[in-house]
Structures are given as C-alpha cells and as structure tokens.
Write a structure and sequence with these properties.
Blueprint: H1 2-12, H2 16-23, H3 25-43, E1 48-55, E2 58-65, E3 73-77, H4 88-96, E4 101-104, H5 111-126, E5 134-136, H6 146-150, E6 155-162, H7 164-171, E7 177-182, H8 196-208, H9 211-216
Parallel strand pairs: 3-4, 3-6, 4-5, 6-7
Antiparallel strand pairs: 1-2
Helix pairs in contact: 1-2, 1-5, 2-3, 3-4
Length: 222
C-alpha cells in the first residue's frame, strides 16, 4: 500500500493521505467486494441435477449439468485521477468470473495500477495459472490504443472511468457490455439546517476536497 501510495502521489498530484487510502485499502476493499459478488453469482445455480418423471411402467430420467461460461476478454480503461481505486472493481469482477483482463491505464498514471497488475500476475503464477490472464496495455499521449482495443471483436466487457464524451462512445459500441463512470456534476438540496455555519463549511469542504488533483489531471484527453 505504501508503494502504491507514493506512486499515486507522483502520478496524480494527490496528497499522501488521499493517495494511500484511495489507492490502497479502499481499492482493496472494492476488489474484495467484487470477488464476493462474483463468487455469489457463480454459486447461485446448481452444477448438477437429476430430472425424474414417472411415465407409468417406466421413468424418464435426465442428468443435467450447468457450468459458468465467461463472456470473453475484459478491457479496463483507467483514469488519471484515481488509477487504482477506479480500476480494481472491474478487474477483480472479471477475473473471479473467468474473464481475462487487459488493463489500459491512463498514460499519465501508469505506475500505481502496474504495481497491482504485477502482484496479480505473481499470484496467478504461484497457482500454476498463466500470468497473462491479467495484463497491462500501456500507451502514450501521442499514440493511444483505447479505441483500437475497445473495438476489437474479442473484447466483450469494458469498464471505463473518464470523460462523458468518450464514455458515450464506448456505450454505443455494438456487442459489448459496458460499465462507465463518467464525469458529472452532483447537485445539493438543502431543506433545513440547525447550524448553517457547519453546513456551509461541510459543503465547502466537499466542493474543494478533490479540486486540486482534478484540475491537474484532466480526463478529456482520451
């Protein structure tokens, strides 16, 4: 977590505390949640059942089996502001359900998620699995590969965080299951307050909480 925190600091401009909590324990918490949700889905249906129907002098029996079938290769497109926290849910959700993952980080924030992918590959290798089940696809600002990957017919799942315009483009691609977290504005409705000074202070804190790193790391370059 400390290594990832320092990597996040130097690629996003976040302060140490924000970089540590978001890219470390909070990201791992979201990863664990994705694994649990995926495992629950895999266990929700029986793998075997016997169907027995009496037909007078004899019975008709059918032995039925079911198995989970992965969708295909998953593409996780990272953002510049939260390169780990916004990427691991899709990564782990795809891995637990048997889908290989290609992680395409933002070219300005590669190192934090590269550390995560490296650790995942170590675990895969230790368990006699191909480490390239999860791999990194790094590009540059001059030659981006996001569209090329997203439009490839082998890519069936896409997880994306970034600008609304590029998110809309991904959602319009045929034959893909797309999960997006697009930029937006959150409104606040104040109905009544007991202490207006405290409420105003809290709203101001919320407004300015991520403003520094958001301004230094625009997401509209995809």
């Amino acid at each position: 977590f400390f290594e990832i925190a320092y990597a996040t600091m130097h690629t996003t401009g976040q302060g140490f505390m924000m970089a540590f909590q978001a890219s470390g324990p909070h990201a791992a918490d979201r990863a664990l949640e994705a694994v649990a949700a995926g495992y629950e889905e895999l266990r929700r249906f029986p793998s075997h059942a016997r169907w027995d129907k009496p037909m007078g002098k004899y019975n008709v029996q059918l032995e039925k089996e079911w198995r989970a079938v992965p969708k295909g290769i998953s593409l996780v497109v990272g953002c510049s502001t939260f390169p780990t926290w916004n990427s691991v849910p899709g990564m782990y959700g795809s891995l637990i359900t048997g889908n290989s993952v290609i992680v395409k980080p933002h070219p300005g924030a590669v190192l934090p998620i590269a550390i995560v992918v490296g650790e995942i590959q170590k675990v895969l290798k230790e368990n006699n699995l191909d480490p390239h089940i999860c791999q990194l696809a790094v590009d540059t600002f001059d030659k981006m590969v996001t569209k090329e990957l997203a439009e490839h017919p082998a890519i069936k799942l896409i997880d994306y965080t970034g600008s609304a315009a590029f998110g809309n483009y991904l959602e319009a691609l045929p034959g893909k299951i797309v999960f997006t977290e697009k930029t937006g504005v959150n409104s606040i409705i104040v109905d009544s307050v007991a202490d207006v000074d405290k409420v105003a202070g809290n709203i101001a804190f919320s407004l300015a909480l991520y403003s520094g790193q958001m301004c230094t790391a625009p997401q509209n370059i995809l």
